[in-house]
């Protein structure tokens, strides 16, 4: 008795027809019929009786059906145990993600990747870019996704994934809600919420000095969620990467910063392909296709 015969037998049981069973198992009907006939020969009797409405199990078919289904259940359980055991001995691929990169923007990619490549385990480490690159140096990470102000030099390689502009973030009752364009000079009249983990913080400070703009930091935080919570409460306004804000975010509105236009580039940073794990190449291939 072969597993293919078992699969075809149960398909006929479930579909009530050799034709529908063949369609469900993506096999030509003569091949399915031949496999069922071979099974019947092995078991010593007919398993199905055919009529105009389809086919029904014979007494012998009804007798063996529960046992056949139990064989399938136990086979699937054995496979699951084997996969679990092999994964216990597998070192996961460790990917560092910079703190300010929106989880909801990358999560669909990782979900698709895991579905397409279930044999690769992923471990995501969220931290500042400095800490992530240090871990990459020490072989603690296999790949880093960040927004470097300048591409790393030396033995690292990088892959550009996407760009995102900075937006002005404010409460839905704020006066900015009546404006279509907001520039840097307009923001200085409002309490400003300073993102301590912003990778462009020094760049923004230099731009403000060059334009003689003074952003008064009413509050500072290293947490994006706390910044957004303070925006919702009407405490002040913030400058944030556009994908940080989910669509239809509660009590929050955004406008692109019009002058100057500030944007950042999200990159994957990794060791040379000659020294990287083979799984890194698979992640990079998917990243190229996903973005």
Q: Brief overview, please?
A:
The protein is α/β, with parallel strands linked by helices and 291 residues long. The protein is built from ten helices and eleven strands.
List keywords for this structure.
single chain; 291 residues; alpha/beta; 7-stranded mixed β-sheet; two-stranded antiparallel sheet; 11 strands; 22% strand; elongated
Report on the architecture of this protein:
Belongs to the LysR transcriptional regulatory family. Keywords: DNA-binding, Transcription, Transcription regulation. By secondary structure, this protein is α/β, with parallel strands linked by helices. Helix content is about 45%, strand content about 20%. The chain has ten helices and eleven strands. The chain has helices spanning about 5-15, 20-25, 30-45, 60-90, 105-115, 130-135, 185, 200-210, 225-230, 280-290, and strands at about 50, 55, 95-100, 120-125, 145, 155-170, 190-195, 215-220, 240, 250-255, 265-270. Strands 3, 4, 5, 6, 9, 10 and 11 form a seven-stranded mixed beta sheet that branches. Strands 1-2 form a two-stranded antiparallel ribbon. α1 (about 5-15) packs across α2 and α1 (about 5-15) packs across α3 (about 30-45). The longest helix is centred in the N-terminal third of the chain and has 30 residues, at about 60-90. It is elongated, with a radius of gyration of 30 Å. The mean pLDDT is about 85.
Order of helices and strands: HHHEEHEHEHEEHEHEHEEEH
Count, helices: 10
Mean pLDDT: 87
Total E-strand runs: 11
Percent of residues in helical segments?
40-55%
Rg, Cα atoms, Å: 30 Å
Gap between N and C termini = 47 Å
Structural class: alpha/beta
Largest sheet: 7 strands, mixed
The outline comes out as elongated
Family: Belongs to the LysR transcriptional regulatory family.
Organism: Methylomonas subterranea
Keywords: DNA-binding, Transcription, Transcription regulation
Domain HTH lysR-type: 1-58
